[in-house]
Structures are given as C-alpha cells and as structure tokens.
Amino acid sequence: MNWRILLAVCFTCTAAVAWAQPMRVFSEFAQIDAMGNVIAPETPREILSPSIARNGYTSFQVVIQAPPQTRFLLHMGQNPEDAVQITLYRRTGGQLERVDLPYESSGAEVLWMDVFVRRDAPVRRVKVEPQVNINGDWIIYPMEVRVREPQVSDVLPPATLRTMLCGGVSAAGVKAGTAVAQMQMRNERQDAALATQSTPADRDELKKRLGSCGRPSSDPEAYLKVRDLFFTPLWMRLKN
Q: φ, ψ for residue 180 (rounded to 5)?
C-alpha cells in the first residue's frame, strides 16, 4: 500500500477513536484538562445513576470533545420535566462562567453542572440527560438521578465535613480560592449539614472513610466514598 494512503488511513482511524465519545459526565472531583482529557484518577467513577440529596446541590462535570472548529449545541433533557433545577457554567481553569441552555460553542469544553433538588421533591428516579448535537447527530448521555431521602438544612455549618470531624480551620476562615474550589467547599459544607443529622456511629464511619483524619488520599475521587455513606442503608453496610 502506498505510504501516503496508509498514513491517511491511520489518521482517519485515530481521529475516529479520539472522537468516539464526544460527551461524557464525571464527578466534581475528577481532574480534567482544557481539552477534556482526564488527568486523575486513572479510572474515574462512571456517572450513570448518582444519588442526590434534597434541598441541596450536586455537581458534575460535562465534557464535550467535538472536533476542532466544529460547532455543537447542548441541551439538557429531564423526565419528568422540571424535576430538578440545572445551572450550567463554562469552566476555564478553576474559574466558572455561567451560560444559558441550550448552549452553543465549538471544539472541546468542560462544563460544570449544578443540579439542585427542592426540599419537597418526591423520592424517585429522574432522567437528567445531557444531549449534544454535533454535525447533525444527536448524542445522549443516559443519566438517571436517584433523588433520595436525606435533606440538606437551609443554614449550612461554617465547616466542611473534614473540618467538622477532624478539626482545623472552618470554611469561614479559609481564604476564597477559585470558583471551582468555592463550589466544592459549598458541597462539602452540605455534607457537614447531613452529618449533623447522622448517628454517632455514622459519624465514626465517616471519619474512617476520610482516612481517620490522616493525609487525604492521592485519589481525587476518594471523597466520593465518604459521601456514599449518606445514601447507603444500614442493612447494606452490615452486609458488606
């Protein structure tokens, strides 16, 4: 085979692999570069059926990797309609710029998605599906959110969960960081609010999952195992 033809075939195959998954959803803790590539952890958690608390925010990162210079149009599908409130931000480094839906842009982008559930929302499964149109083709990310019993209190404690359980400087005393860091701190204060409603045994378990207040794990998503406790029934924990 002529080497030019071979090179063209290889380029085509490589491009097809690179854009095989033009849209993915990750946790708020996954570290993602500007081109939408995951830096850490090596195997990020698959976000398909996440549990979320009522009267609180849950954050995700929506990664779109359209080919360079190629326009895309992003919608958010819900079923039932208006079951949750979605706020979308365009992420640039650690900063966030709020954008409206539907959202139109081009190339690769990382978007921060805040999902809020009202206090009186019924406990149920809700479809929250990012939908992107690239070159006339619709790609749908099949995410089904599980609205659970826990409710975040209206007034958040000044401390994050780690500070509440392990001591240290409260969130109120921490110098404001990037917009992403502020969002993560808000979410961890929500976790602290949920922990105040937990039993002493649950708080001990939360402390263990934090690593008994030792040095935080090098895995940026390790904290998700701490948050999982709020949605894991006691019988399931005893079984495991």
A: -65, -45
> What is the pTM (predicted TM-score) of this model?
0.86
- Longest Cα–Cα distance in the chain: 71
How much is the pLDDT for 124?
96
Host H or E run for residue 183: helix 179-195
What's the CA gap between 118 and 54, in Å, rounded? 6
What is the token pair recorded at 21? 């998954």
| Cis amide linkage into residue 41, ω under 30° from 0 | yes
CATH 2.60.40.10 domain locations along the chain: 22-151
Mean pLDDT in each 10-residue stretch from start to end of the chain (240 residues)?
40 40 95 95 96 97 96 97 96 93 96 97 97 96 96 93 82 71 96 93 91 85 94 58
Angle formed at CA 60 by CA 183 and CA 224, multiple of 5 degrees? 85
**Structure tokens of 71?**
């326009």
CATH architecture assignment, domain 22-151: Sandwich (2.60)
Determine the length of the chain. 240
